[in-house]
Amino acid sequence: MREHRPPLSPAEGYSRVADVYDTWHWRNFWRRNETPRVERILHRAAASRSLCILDIGCGTAELTARLRERGHDMFGVDISSRMVDVARSKLGKDRVWVASAQSLPFKSASFDFLVACRVFSHVRRLAKALNELRRVAREGAILVVTDVHPSHRYKHTRVSGEWGEVTIHTIKHAPDKVTAIAASLGWTLVAEDVLTATSASWLPMEDERFQSIDRTGIRPVCYILVLRATGGSRASQVRGRSPP
User: Fold this and answer.
1) What SS3 class is residue 55?
2) What is the CATH classification number for the domain harbouring 46?
3) What percent of the chain has pLDDT over 90?
4) Residue 191's beta-bridge partner residues?
5) How far is Cα of residue 93 from the mean position of the Cα atoms in its chain?
6) Distant-in-sequence, close-in-space partners of 26: CB < 8 Å, separation ≥ 6
7) Residues 94/244, Cβ–Cβ less than 8 Å
8) Residue 39 maps to a domain
């Protein structure tokens, strides 16, 4: 019988699982379904140019490192100090910092492209985060937001493996809520998509670890928003470091 414990904060929870996070069974689902979609959006936005990109909530920097291999100038932040340690082992300490989406250590108008994969479900103050992302985004920059859809059957993020299970506090933000707040802060919706069992590129077969997926395809698993920075930043021009 599962022991019920209060969910941990994202900073503590992800630090506990950082060393084994890339072996978590859901990581395979995301890398085979979510990552290719993010890469296609970036490919269209880059048009063969090298972009300065910020990966918010970069975790172990698996995606960050993959995009750097494609020639982009990559930087990452994560709220978990242990995740940052793992990420720095791949990218270097001058490329990844401990920081939240609500307070970034960069100068205004620093990035061409920003990625926040399943980050906002751990952010309570969406307006503050989206305002801060708009501050560090250059005019015309693209922000890709992915997150687990509220219709997906889950309450909190549970990262599991042979070591046990860690439950991390999670907030379900509907995509229309994210886009409405973003629109008030200088972001314009460019595209929106949902990932379902019927649209997934890869779907685990009879695997009890994925029982929460609605196999009929009616309830989405996650959503993807593509936003463009337009109309000028509403945020104060806060000083920080320039990307090296």
Assistant:
1) strand
2) 3.40.50.150
3) 85
4) 226
5) 20
6) 159, 210
7) yes
8) yes
Q: Which domain holds residue 23?
A: 10-229
Q: Is the pLDDT of residue 168 over 90?
A: yes
Q: What is the pLDDT of residue 208?
A: 83
Q: How far apart are CA 209 and CA 195, in angstroms?
A: 18
Given the DSSP bridges, would you call strands 157-161 and 164-168 parallel, antiparallel or unpaired? antiparallel
For the whole prediction, is pTM greater than 0.85?
yes
Is 234 within the bounds of a domain?
A: no
**What's the domain count of the chain?**
1
Strand (E) or helix (H) holding 23: none
pLDDT number for residue 242: 74
Burial of 20 (C-beta count, 10 Å sphere; 0-12/13-18/19+): middle
116 has a pLDDT exceeding 90: yes
Instruction: Determine which helix (DSSP H) or strand (DSSP E) holds 69, and give its type and residue range.
Output: helix 62-69
Model confidence pLDDT, tens digit, residues 46-58: 988 999 999 999 9
Give Cα 180 to chain centroid, integer Å: 19
One-letter amino acid at 171 equals I
Q: Read off the tokens for 142.
A: 């693209």
Q: What mean pLDDT, rounded, does the chain reach?
A: 93
Q: Rounded CA gap, 20 and 11, in Å?
A: 16
Q: Indicate whether 172 belongs to any domain.
A: yes
Mean pLDDT over residues 72-80, rounded?
A: 98
Cβ pair 44, 102 in contact under 8 A: no
Structure tokens, 24: 């978590």
- Domain-located, residue 244: no
Rounded to an integer, what distance in angstroms lies between the CA atom of residue 76 and that of residue 231?
26
